[in-house]
Amino acid sequence: MCAAAFFISAPICRGNVSVKKEIERSIDKGISWLYNQQQLPNGHWGSPDYPALTALALRSLLGHPDAHKAGKYTKQIEAGFAFLRSKVQSDGGIYGKGLASYNTSISLLAFLQKKDPSDAEIIQDARRFIINQQSDFDQKGVTDNLFDGGVGYGSTWAHSDLSNTHLALEALYFVKKSSKEKESPLVDLDWDAAIEFVSKCQNLPQANDQEWVSAEKEDLGGFIYFPGKSMAGERTSDEGRVSLRSYGSMSYAGLLSFIYAEMSSDDSRVVAVRDWLSQNFTVEENPGMGMQGLYYYYHTMAKALTLSGVEEIVTADEKSVDWREKLAFKLFDEQESDGFWINESGRWWEKDPVLVSCYAILALERIYYAL
Predict the structure, then answer these.
(1) Buried b (16+ CB within 10 A) or exposed e, 151-187
(2) DSSP state, 42?
(3) Hey, what's the torsion of the CAs at 163, 167, 172, 177, to 10 degrees?
């Protein structure tokens, strides 16, 4: 079966009305819990040093599918944005204690979602800040370093990684989509360099000549964290060759990067990652990582597949699966009675119920609006 056949854009099933109602109930329950976690009078969620947590909570509240119910959170939303504005730095970034790129990208998305004209300067300054985070380690304009073109956390984590790069590309993509300006901005990201970096994170020998690249069926087309490093570890072939394993969350981040760069769906790199994601589709774990980063995986899955217009996936056993229903029902099952979610694995902050609940709510909102 050809790779392109694994993602199916089928007509929307009108029977999904009942699923939408269940999603709405789950979202409402989650947001009610999240509402009570806001720290007043400052207006933040989670650690005040990391405004991205507040931004994720605000995006969750703003995405509530019932406008009438969402109206009761107006004061909390305004308090949250007042806190975000207090984290705007002189360089245009939106951050507190480190992780400047990560916090700015996610906070910028919250400001874009609010659509308040008074935040226009904050948005443009944050956009410039993110562009300035793009790595260019050696000769200007020449991608001769493995990390050139990508974006890292900033500060002590200066080198690029796929997670921060896809978040930066997401923020810049939606700034561009929301802009009313007809002419191109004077300063923009080097998108070609960004995709060259992203491609260096893909297990695809015809597009990536790094010695660690895996051509094994289990890895082909998938992604790793950054060139030379996979959180899923190494694979040794029968001949003794060591390569890096692909894994789920970064493979969705790779697909999202290609989407944000507006690459053709026929590009061999896009086809390859879609094929890998179909072959490894599951909602029971983050493929290659088990429970680690599970809700980040759900969030990137929901973003990537809704933006791709995908409604059904043909899995490795050639079964057609409605991924939206699978993921939604999995999130229903994992939601605690109080309305929050939490991951039993604490890696990447996923024992923080605020962070994990935001990932879950945002994934459900994506599915809801896609339906």
Answers:
(1) bbbbeeeebbbbbbbbbbbbbbbebbeeeeeeeeeee
(2) T
(3) 120
Is-contact 232 289, C-beta < 8 A?
A: yes
Residue 345: Cβ-neighbour burial (10 angstroms; 0-12, 13-18, 19+):
middle
| Segments in the chain forming alpha helices (H) | 17-35, 51-62, 67-70, 74-86, 100-114, 120-132, 162-178, 191-199, 248-260, 268-279, 294-307, 323-334, 353-370
CA angle 312, 315, 318 (to 5 degrees): 100
> Distance of alpha carbon 41 from its chain centroid, rounded?
30
Please report the DSSP string for 247-282 in residue order. Answer: BHHHHHHHHHHHHHTT--TTSHHHHHHHHHHHHT--
How far apart CA 64 and CA 99 sit, in angstroms, is 28
Peptide bond into 51 cis (omega under 30): no
313 pairs with which residues across the strands?
7, 321
β-strands 320-321, 7-8 pairing:
unpaired
Taking the CB of residue 337, how many other CB atoms lie within 10 A of it?
6
The model's pLDDT over 14-70, given as tens digits with 9 standing for 90+, comes to 457 889 999 999 999 999 999 999 999 999 999 999 999 999 999 999 999 988 888
Q: Please, which residues bridge with residue 312 across strands?
A: 8
Amino acid at 14: R
Selection from 299, 310, 279, 278 nearest residue 362 by Cα: 299
Residue 114 token pair: 């609010």
Q: Left if phi > 0, otherwise alpha if psi is -120 to 50, otherwise beta: which for 293?
A: left
CA of residue 22 relative to chain centroid, distance: 24
pLDDT digits (tens, 9 = 90+) for 124-147: 999 999 999 998 876 665 557 788
pTM: predicted TM-score of the whole model, two decimal places: 0.93
